[in-house]
Amino acid sequence: MVYGATAQLVPPPTATQEEQEPDTTQEQKPDSLRMRFYPRSIRFGTDLISLIKSQTTSTFTGWEVNADIDCGKYFMAVDYGSWGRNYDLRNGGDYTNSGTYWRAGMDANLLRKDPDKNLVFLGFRYGHSSFSESSNIHISDPFFGDVQKHVTNPAVTAAWGELTGGLRVKIWKEFWMGYTARMKFAPTVTGETGMTTYDIPGYGRNVKGFYWGFNYQIFWRIPFTKQKKAAPKPPPKSEF
Amino acid sequence: MRFLLVGILFLLLSACLSEPDCIITATNNVKISLHKITSDSSNYVKFVTISISGADSVINTLKDSVAFLNLPVNPHQGETTFRFQYKKKINAITVIKTDSVTLSYVTQNIIISPSCGGYVYYTNLAVVSTSFEIIPKVVFNQLSTSATVQTNLAIKL
Fold it and tell me: B109–A91: do the CB atoms touch at under 8 Å?
């Protein structure tokens, strides 16, 4: 904080000064991101894709809310959501799941010196999900006739990691929009009893390797302190 | 830096290739190979009847001697008993013997994808009890239609 304040108070060197002194102060240029790590504002948001998918498809119901805290260059982020799938299987039977999930992690802003603090970020998340799932599977067997296998996993938990990237852009006053791309990996599932988990709320299909996710989000930002407005630049001097 | 970007792009695109192939190897048939008691060589046996617990019908259509059987386990239960009536030469006299083996297994519902379907896989095949002189050996404990799984159970008789 002291560094930032000092940097703003020092007047920019004039051309004459620059000529007289060698450029030893280049590393000390003011940088809006080189600030102390403390919370400046919180943003609350929601994922529009989940909401639209819930309304337009019969196989998904869910929502997700997001929050991030501006700590200077770094943003602490948490997500919480609900997720339910309902699939009809091609060979008869069905699959359903329902549960909640959360993610927590941190993003690093790659944009430097942006006055609005728009973000282009990379980050990571730890994800955790608690859910139940069930399936009905039909089998036709020449010896045993038609068989219907109903299996339930009543209490399953899953955890995974994510690499995130995306952007947040200030639209109007404290209203922000942005997207988050998620590279999800290493899902671990516990609590399977009768069936192998097919779909993990917050993660997606339970597959080895990487799995892709995408959120398009809107946010409302609440600053913890009033931001000082930057002093208006003096008008350029007339050459005449 | 350029390689890093290419690497990140590859990882991103690899996630798009995660749609599973619709390869179904699920079956409730157990592959049984028959061997001589004195060696591991195949033993061709003439079966009179084969009955399967939980099934109404009995297999009695095996006209020829066989060294290999493909028998279904009961999908309603976790155990199935196969009762074999077969011809065996003892001191140059052909007699009809009856032996049985009870197998246990675990079923696992696996959804491959909605467009491919969901199937029941049978795993953890084990011999619970038997009347054979030598306890049958589980060679591969997962039932599968895959050609790589040639035998689940080897019986010496």
Answer: no
pLDDT at A10: 41
Partner residue opposite A183 with nearest CB, options B12, B108, B116: B12
Whether chain B has a CB inside 8 Å of the CB on A24: the answer is: no
Residue A163: which of A213, A238, A215 has the closest Cα? A213
CA angle A67, A71, A74 (to 5 degrees): 85
A236 vs B141, more confident: B141
Provide the residue range defining the domain that includes B149: 22-156
Check which CATH number belongs to the domain holding B132 and give it: 2.60.40
The answer to whether B143 and B119 are in contact (CB under 8 A) is no
**Which 3-state string (H, E, C) describes chain A?**
CHHHHHHHHCCCCCHHHHHHCCCCCHHHCCCCCCCCCCCCEEEEEEEHHHHHHHHHCCCEEEEEEEEEEEECCEEEEEEEEEEEEEEECCCCCEEEEEEEEEEEEEEEECCCCCCCCCEEEEEEEEEEEEEEEEEEEEEEECCCEEEEEEEEEEEEEEEEEEEEEEEEEEEECCEEEEEEEEEEEEEEEECCCCECCCEECCCEECCCCCEEEEEEEEEEEEECCCCCCCCCCCCCCCCC
Domains and CATH numbers, chain A: 37-223 (2.40.160)
Are residues B109 and A137, on separate chains, in Cβ contact within 8 Å? yes
Residue from the list B14, B52, B118 with its beta carbon closest to the beta carbon of A89: B118
For chain B, the domain total comes to 1
Is the pLDDT reported for residue B128 higher than 80? yes
Has residue A189 got a pLDDT over 70?
Answer: yes
- Residue B5 inside a domain? The answer is no
